[in-house]
Amino acid sequence: MQTFFQSKGNSYTLRFGAALFVLLAAQAHASDLTGLGAASGYNAFIFSNFTESGTDSEGRIAVGGNFAPANGGFTVASHYGSDQAGTFDLVVGGNYTNQYNTVAGGDIFVGGNMNWTDPTLSHNAYVDGNVTNSSYGSVGGKIYYGGNYSSVGTLNNQKMATPMASPLDFLSIQTSIDALSANLAQQASNTTIQVAYNTYTMTGASPALNVFNLTDSNFNGSTINLSAPAGSTVIVNVAGQSASFNGGSINFSGVSASNVIFNFATAKSVNMASFGFNGTLLAPLATFNGTYGQINGELIANNANGTTELHDVAFTGNLTQFATGSTLQTSNSQIAATPEPSTWMLALSAGLALTASARRRRSQPNC
C-alpha cells in the first residue's frame, strides 16, 4: 500500500503497509504468559455448541460451533463498558441464534448465519452468512454481512464484498488445548491431600508450581480447602470420565482463583448444580452442564449447557512449559475487519513519525 502526502511542494511516498499491519497486530495481540494461547482471556471458550441461557457472561465468549442460548436471553461481556471497539467480545464459528440478547462490550463475528431478534450491540457485527432480525433493536456500529439481509427495524448495515476470515482458528486451538490438558494430567504431584468427612484438605508449598492429582470425581456436598503460596500456579488434575459438583464449596488460602486451574483431561461430562466453582475449569473433551451457581474463572469445554453464570476471572497462572506450538498464538482482535477511525489514525501517526525520522537521517551529511 502506498500513501502520498504533499508538503511544501514536495511529494513524499510512505510505504508502511507492512508496518501498519504490525502496529495493528501489536495493539491487538497481547503476549500469552498463561499457556492457554488464543483461549486465554475468554470467560468461556467452547469448541462445539453453547446453549446456556437466562444468565450472563461477564467477559468475552468464543464458540466454535453454534451459539444458541435456549429460551432467549444471554448477555455477553456484561462486565465491560461500550469502549471495547476493535476487540471481538463474541466469536461464533457456526450460526448465532438468539432473542433479546445483549453484547455489551465490543464487536462480534459470526461465521455462519445470524438470526438475532431485537439485538442490543454497542459496536459492529461481522456475519459471513445471512442476517435476519424479526424485531427492532439497537446497533451502535454497523452490521456487515456476506449473504442476505432482512430486518424489521432500520439498523445500520453494509454488504461485504468478500467473507471475513474468522479471528480464531478453532480447530488449531482445540488441538493445542487438548495437548495442553493431556500434558498437565501427566504431571507428578508435589503436594499433599487429606480427605476426612467429605472435606479435602489440599496443601502445596512451592512458590512456583503446585500440582494436585485427585482420583475422585464425585464432589457432591464436598468442601475443598486448598492452600498454596500467593502468586504460585496451581494445577488440580481430576480423574475420571465424569465429574460432579452439587453443593459444597471450593476455598483458597494464599493463592487466588486466577492462578488455579482444574484440569478434567479425560472427562466427557462435568456437571455442576447450585455450586460456586472457583478457578478455571479446563475440560476440552467434555460437555459442561450447569444448573445455577457460577464459575469464578474461565470455562474451556467442548459444549456448554444450562444456566450457570460466568464471572470474569481470567487465568493468570503460568502453564507455558506445558504448552505446545500453536497454543502460543493469541487473537482477540479484528485485524481483518474494518478498524475504528481512531485505530487507523494511531497507526497513521506512527507511520508518519517513522517516515519523518528516516527523512531526517537521510538529510544529515555524512561525516
Structural descriptors:
elongated, 367 residues, 3 domains, 3 helices, disordered N terminus, mainly beta
Note down, in words, how this protein is organized.
By secondary structure, the protein is mainly beta. The chain has 3 helices and 32 strands. The strands form 6 sheets. Strands 3, 5, 7, 10, 13, 16, 18, 21, 23, 24, 26, 27, 29 and 31 form a 14-stranded parallel beta sheet that branches. Strand 19 (192-196) and strand 20 form a beta hairpin. Helix 1 (17-28) crosses helix 3 (341-363). The longest helix has 23 residues, at 341-363. The chain is elongated and about 60 Å long. The relative contact order is 0.16. Residues 1-31 and 326-363 have low confidence and may be disordered.
Layout: helices, strands, pairs:
Blueprint: E1 3-7, E2 10-14, H1 17-28, E3 44-46, E4 55-57, E5 61-63, E6 74-76, E7 88-92, E8 96-99, E9 102-103, E10 107-110, E11 114-117, E12 120-121, E13 125-127, E14 131-133, E15 138-139, E16 143-145, E17 149-151, E18 157-159, H2 170-185, E19 192-196, E20 199-203, E21 209-214, E22 223-228, E23 233-238, E24 242-246, E25 249-254, E26 260-263, E27 269-273, E28 276-278, E29 280-291, E30 294-296, E31 299-306, E32 309-311, H3 341-363
Parallel strand pairs: 3-5, 3-31, 4-6, 5-7, 6-9, 7-10, 8-11, 9-12, 10-13, 11-14, 12-15, 13-16, 14-17, 16-18, 20-22, 21-23, 22-25, 23-26, 24-27, 26-29, 27-29, 28-30, 29-31, 30-32
Antiparallel strand pairs: 1-2, 19-20
Helix pairs in contact: 1-3
Please bin the fraction of helical residues: 10-25%
Structural class comes to mainly beta
pLDDT < 50 runs, ≥5 residues: 1-31, 326-363
Q: Radius of gyration in whole Å, from Cα?
A: 23 Å
The total domain count is 3
**Total DSSP E strands:** 32
Strand percentage lies at 35-45%
User: If you average the pLDDT, what whole number results?
Assistant: 82
